[in-house]
Amino acid sequence: MRYLSVAGNSLTILLDGGDTGGAYTLMESILPPGGGPPRHVHHREDEGFLVMAGEVTFHVGDEAFVRKEGQYLFAPRDIPHQFVNTGHSEAIVLETAMPSGIEIFFDEIGTPIPARNACMIPFSAEARARMIAAAPKYGVEILLPRK
Q1: What does the pLDDT look like over 59-75, one tens digit per residue?
Q2: Measuring CA to CA, which of 61, 63, 85, 134 is 20 to 30 A from 72?
Q3: Domains and CATH numbers, the chain
């Protein structure tokens, strides 16, 4: 397992491509209220999200979906998406990326933290620039916020 702070959130890589023969990556995200990644597109992976705690609003394409504990959402590749903790306490999301490989992107852009519940590092302008610069190498586009 690896513990990272990515985009102001805690990300634990539970299983990577080496563990799954390249089939998928399994991760756990802890999102503070208002937390979540910027709007983005994956061109190599489909993603599945199971909300384990809290309330998360997912924007997939032009649609919004609110998911709470025990609810699932699928986000296919090539469709812009974003998710935001819209609750009042931390949200925990189990994420699956199929096939694996996205964990290498997170290893490059994330900051190691000592444990899954360690203090998350705020998403600085420098971290955002690092994410935007690295993303194309991994088939990811970071999109500008919607107006």
Answers
A1: 999 999 999 999 999 99
A2: 134
A3: 2-142 (2.60.120.10)
Over residues 97-145, the pLDDT tens digits come to: 999 999 999 999 999 999 888 877 888 889 999 999 999 999 999 997 6
Q: How crowded is residue 49: how many other Cβ atoms within 10 Å of its Cβ?
A: 22
pTM of the model: 0.92
* Neighbour count for residue 63 (Cβ, 10 Å): 9
Token couple for 45: 């992976």
Whole-angstrom distance, CA of residue 64 vs CA of residue 67: 10
